[in-house]
Amino acid sequence: MDNSIHNDEQIVQRQVIKKYSGARPWQVAVLMLMSAAVAALVLFVALLGGKGRYRLIDGGAKYDSSLISTLLSDIDKYYYFHDDAPDTEKLLEDAAHNIVNSIGDPYAAYYTNEEYEAFENSINGSYKGIGVLLGVTDGNGAEIVRVYEGNPAAKAGIREGDTVIAVDGKSTLGLPHEEVSDLISGLDGTTVALTIKRGEETLEIDVERGDVYIKRVYTEILENSIGYIRIESFTGNAAEEFNEGLDGLLGQGIESLIIDLRNNPGGSLDVVVAICDRILPECTITTLEGKLVDPPQSFESTAEQSLEIPYAVLINENSASSSEIFASAVQDNKCAALIGKNTYGKGIVQSVVPLSDGSGMQITVAQYYTPNGYAVHKQGITPDVEVDGDNGMYELGDLTDAQLAKALEVMQEKLAEKK
């Protein structure tokens, strides 16, 4: 998937949805009137039954759209270069993008019908793209931190650790992450030409965009009956994949476990709560506070199931959002050691508002706190055992990986204590 590892709570590992970047001069009047009209809309967040399950509802508040209709009519009537202007639908779409982009929420976005449908598909684990996860961009380009097996990029020979320095001939040096993602994204069946820096080599690799499916949970047994689970994101059916993977490892007789959340950008609150509920004793997982969550709501582990073997959790600077909910729940409830580097620090929650015409809007709705009441946002979670990573690339079960090696050492010590 072609998106940032620091993306929003709900849209970690989704197909990048293009944002409109600025109104043209003749669109300003439309934008101003649309802003005033849309400001009258009321948007509700309804907490439904179950743990952390959100539904966002278009409040359907009435507003007077006659000024907008008049303005559009007069543009059609008076504008001399009208034939060169976009149609009415495009004008309103651009205005909607600008309204949402102007509220000051860096995670807010407006989705057209097509974009919203693509967003929904990506959350469910399938989308059109090339199947990579981009890291933070810098002056050297955009590093690829994950290449998803069996998908177009992997088939074309793209590797983790490659740096994208140009897309279709356009340099990515100095470009913001989202713009690089937009350049890589495109229609099914089309080809994108990537200029890749791999060590001292510069390569030109063409990738045909197509169907992408992302597996979220990987498992392996390391030495001395120590299990390993890597969670790529807390989206889609990650909870089911986690339960299946954990049950499989336990069935093979593992005596301890390492859970790897490095480079996991987050996902759904529902999913991380469900996974925490599978391994934690009866305790608080997180507390949510927002304008429409009053009083604040705590999410609890029921202890119907819990993990009875020792385990450790790997984190790094790219573990964000739901990963930080998981890590703080484990740490504050003294269930396991956190090993690695301080996490990213995204302690806010976004939800998506489906609008009546099939489009949608994403917006920040709440902030979460750890079980001990700590606000994670812009601070992150400090590991119990700090270990520098090698290069940000982590192969499954690679024991030359310094952070994984340290976790293995900690687990071996735990097992020795039991004997």
List low-confidence stretches: 1-63
The biggest beta sheet is recorded as: 6 strands, antiparallel
Number of strands: 21
* Helical/strand content category: alpha+beta
Instruction: Write down the overall geometry.
Output: globular
Mean pLDDT equals 82
The Cα radius of gyration reads 23 Å
N-end to C-end Cα span = 45 Å
Question: What's the short version?
Answer:
The protein is an alpha+beta fold.
Summary tags:
globular, 419 residues, 21 strands, alpha+beta, 27% helix, six-stranded mixed sheet, six-stranded antiparallel sheet, 10 helices, disordered N terminus
General description of the model:
This protein has helices at residues 28-38, 66-78, 88-101, 113-123, 152-156, 177-184, 238-251, 269-279, 322-332, 402-418; strands at 43-47, 54-58, 109-111, 126-129, 132-138, 141-147, 163-167, 170-171, 191-198, 201-208, 210-213, 217-221, 226-231, 256-260, 283-290, 293-301, 311-315, 337-340, 348-354, 360-369, 385-386. The protein is an alpha+beta fold. The strands form five sheets. Strands 5, 6, 7, 8, 9 and 10 form a six-stranded antiparallel β-sheet that branches. It has a six-stranded mixed β-sheet with strand order 12-13-14-17-18-21, sandwiched between helices. Strands 3, 15, 16, 19 and 20 form a five-stranded antiparallel β-sheet that branches. It is globular, with a radius of gyration of 23 Å. The model is unreliable at 1-63 (pLDDT under 50).
